[in-house]
Every structure is written in C-alpha cells, then in structure tokens.
Amino acid sequence: METRRSLKGSSAHNVKSGLCLWLILWLVVVKPGGVGACPRLCVCYPTPMTVSCQSQNLTIVPAGVPYDSQRVLWLYANNITWIEAGAFSNLRVLEELDLGDNPLQRLEGGAFRGLEKLQSLHMHRCKLAALPHDLFHKLYSLQFLYLQDNQLHFLQDDLFSDLVNLTHLFLHGNRIRALSENVFRGLVNLDRLLIHDNRIRQVNRRAFRDLGRLTILYLFNNSLAELPGQAMRDAQGIQFLRLNGNPWSCGCEARPLWEWFRKARISSSDLMCTSPSQRRGQDLRFLRELDFALCPLPDPGSLAGSTTTTFSTKTRWWFSKNKPASSSKASYQKSSETVKAFPFSCRQASIPPQNPL
Ligand SMILES: *[C@@H]1O[C@H](CO)[C@@H](O)[C@H](O)[C@H]1NC(C)=O
Ligand SMILES: *[C@@H]1O[C@H](CO)[C@@H](O)[C@H](O)[C@H]1NC(C)=O
Ligand SMILES: *[C@@H]1O[C@H](CO)[C@@H](O)[C@H](O)[C@H]1NC(C)=O
Ligand SMILES: *[C@@H]1O[C@H](CO)[C@@H](O)[C@H](O)[C@H]1NC(C)=O
Predict the structure, then answer these.
(1) Which of 62, 70, 73, 206 is surrounded by the most beta carbons within 10 Å?
(2) Which is more confidently placed, 116 or 67?
(3) Is 55 a pocket residue for ligand 2 (Cβ < 6 Å)?
(4) Burial of 202 by CB count in 10 Å (0-12 exposed, 13-18 middle, 19+ buried)?
(5) Taking residues 148-175, what's their average pLDDT?
(6) What's the CA-to-centroid distance between 245 and ligand 4, angstroms?
(7) Which domains does the chain show, CATH number per domain?
(8) pLDDT in the model for residue 346
(9) Is the pLDDT of residue 124 over 80?
(10) What's the pTM value of the predicted model, to 2 decimals?
(11) CB burial class (10 A; 0-12, 13-18, 19+) of residue 50?
C-alpha cells in the first residue's frame, strides 16, 4: 500500500515538472516567434483551429493570427473600417471569415485575395454602400455569402462570376434597384437567393439564366410591377417563391408570369394586383384566360431570347401560331450562340415544348 501510494505521488510529481518544463519551453521558444500565439484580445481554440476576436472594438484586422492551419476567424461586432488588399493572404486554409457588424467603409478590391479555401464569408450589417468589382475573384470554394442589411444600391455585372460553388447568397435588406442580365452570371450551383426588402423595380429577362439549380427565391417587399416569364423559366428548379409585397400590375403585361404560374408546380406567396384599378386586390396567379382576351398575342420569339417583336394579329391563342416568324428565328440562332459561349447555361434544350392546353 505504502509503496504504491508513494509511487503514484512521484509519478504525479514527474508529470507536473514535465508540464512546467514544457510551459517554460513554450514561453521561450514559441511566444516571441508569434506563429502559434493568439493575438491580443482574442481567444483561440484548437479543433478546428479558430481565432475568435469578436466584440473588442478592434479597428484593424489583428496582427499575428497564427496562420499555418487557421480554419476559422471571427472578427464580428468590432469597429474595423479598413481592410487592405491581401489582409488575409497568409490564411491559406481559412474556411470561415466573419466580419459582420463592422463599419467597413474602406474595403479594398483584393481584401480576400488568396482565400481559395474559404467556404463562408459574413459581411452582414457592415454599412456597405458599394462593393469593389474584383472583391470575390477566385473565391472558388465559397458556398455561403452573407451581404444582408447593408446599403448596397447596385451590383455590377459579373461581381459573383467566380463563385461556382456558391449555394447561399443573402442580399436582403439593401437598396438594390435592378437585376441586370449578367449580375448572377456564373452562379451555377446557387440554391437560395434572398433579395427581399430591397427596391427592385426591374429584373432583366435573362437575369436568372445561370440559376438552374435555384430552389428558393425571395423577392418579396420590393417595387416590382412586372417579372419576365423568361426569368422564371430559366430558374427551372424553383420550389419556394415569395413575391408578395410588390405592386403587381395585372394588365396584359402580367400574362407571361401568369402563364408561367399555370405550368409551374411550386409553392408561392400571394401576388396582389395593384393595377389596373378594377383588378386591385386580386391575385395575379388566379386571373382567368378571359382576363387576357383583349391582349395582343404574346411573342413566340420571347421564348428564344429576342427582345421585342409585337404581334398585331387577333388570333386568340398563340399556340395556333407556333411556327416562329422569320425575325424571331434569327434571334433564336443568336441566342443559341450566346448559350454556346457560356457552357454552364445550356438550358435551351430543356425548355419544355409549348403545349398550353
Ligand atoms: C467598446 O466601446 C464601447 C463604447 O465606447 C464601450 O462601451 C465598450 O465597453 C467597449 N468594449 C470593449 C470590449 O472594450
Ligand atoms: C470606432 O472607431 C472610431 C474611429 O475609427 C471612433 O471614433 C469610435 O469611437 C469607435 N467606436 C467604438 C465603439 O469604439
Ligand atoms: C466545389 O464543391 C464540390 C462539392 O462540394 C467540391 O467537390 C469541389 O472541390 C468544390 N470546388 C472547389 C473549387 O472548391
Ligand atoms: C418591407 O420593407 C420595409 C422597409 O425596409 C419594412 O419596414 C417592412 O417591415 C417590410 N415589410 C415586410 C412585409 O417585410
């Protein structure tokens, strides 16, 4: 008994002095080198390698983040205003960067240069009014991009074009006014697009051209009176759609969207008409064929990508005129050239043949 206890005691003593020795070694060797140390005001965790520096009133990105194997960096709720190009370029294996709740007034174009393993980037509530055009270049691994609750009023063409793996794009609570033809180009894996609570008046008819994998689209609480039927046909995987809180016009201009709703089997919010006055309060989805009886025929060329060819014939239903006019044939060829130029959007073949009844 006695011997065993003293043996135990001495081995505990050995462990203790061993730890002391390691601590001294660590202090002497590691600390002054910087690498492996945790920056001041931050807390570091081992698995996955995380540096957590939130809510510290930091005004710059802290120096000395141990970069070798850093996977997560939390800098949210600080006072960071300026991020220079290459600020994180040592963090080659970083997967998550949270910059939410910082007043990022000076974000340089190359701020995220080198973050080719980054999967989640949080920049919500950062008072962002504009984004440098090359901000997201080469972020090929990015899957989640949070830009909600900023002051963005404009998104340049091809801003997201390198984000081939992006699945979630949150842009709600900004001041965006229009979605142009190439704004979402390249987002071939996008699953959720949240752009509600903006000021969108106009959506280009090909704005969703690359979004064949989209399943959730929130466009509620914007200023949309019209939405092109072609835009919705391009987003052929949609399952959940919210379009409420927009001032829909339900005259002849509503027909392409109404046609799309007749064929699509999706869960959608209501679409209350605000004009013309006799249709106010009706739901656009539930208008009747009769409501469009006096409208000019829809343009068959609109399926193929032409812009405006108006038909003046009085034939009631356009399936009786399925043969495209020569002008729209030319535009069909033009649009298949465009398709060839962008290999991701070869959706032309999968548009179902028109068969309205
Ligand atoms: C950050 O600044 C605010 C306002 O100046 C202050 O109330 C708060 O205590 C500061 N927080 C830290 C962690 O220093
Ligand atoms: C944030 O930084 C600015 C100067 O860059 C300073 O005026 C302000 O007081 C800071 N706010 C907090 C909460 O520390
Ligand atoms: C994109 O995601 C897929 C599946 O998650 C993955 O296999 C691929 O490596 C990713 N591509 C890049 C460039 O990270
Ligand atoms: C629509 O947006 C306005 C202004 O941003 C907001 O006050 C309102 O609550 C929003 N409505 C809905 C239904 O989300």
Answers:
(1) 73
(2) 116
(3) no
(4) middle
(5) 97
(6) 9
(7) 38-141 (3.80.10.10), 158-317 (3.80.10.10)
(8) 28
(9) yes
(10) 0.76
(11) middle
Residue that wins the pLDDT comparison between 198 and 321: 198
Q: For the chain, count helices (H), then strands (E).
A: 4, 17
- Above 60 in pLDDT, residue 303? no
Give the position, in ligand 2's atom list, of the atom nearest the Cα of 79. 1
Closest-CA residue, ligand 2 atom 7, reads 79
Instruction: Write a three-state SS string for 93-120.
Output: CCCEEECCCCCCCEECCCCCCCCCCCCE
Residue 66 has a pLDDT of 73
The encoded tokens of residue 324 equal: 């495209």
Position with higher pLDDT, 138 vs 345: 138
164: number of CA atoms within 13 Å, CB side?
Answer: 8
pLDDT surpassing 90 at residue 169: yes
In degrees and rounded to multiples of 5, residue 256 shows phi and psi of -60, -40
Pocket probe mutation, ligand 3, options 94, 165, 166, max atoms within 8 Å of Cβ: 165
> Mean pLDDT of all residues in the chain?
79
Question: What are the pLDDT digits (tens) for 177-202?
Answer: 999 999 999 999 999 999 999 999 99
CA dist list (Å): 142 to 58, 99, 107, 166, 250: 26, 15, 19, 5, 39
Q: 178 — phi, psi (to 5°)?
A: -150, 150
70-102: b (≥16 Cβ within 10 Å) or e: bbbbbbbbbebebbeeebbeebeebbbbbbbbb
Number of residues that this document lists for the chain: 357
Let me know: does 89 contact 112? Beta carbons within 8 Å: no
pLDDT of residue 47: 83
Confirm or reject: Cβ of 59 under 6 Å from ligand 2. yes
CA of 59 to the centre of ligand 2 (A): 8
Q: Which atom of ligand 3 is nearest to the CA of 140?
A: 13
Q: Which pLDDT belongs to residue 16?
A: 53
Nearest CA to ligand 1 atom 2: 57
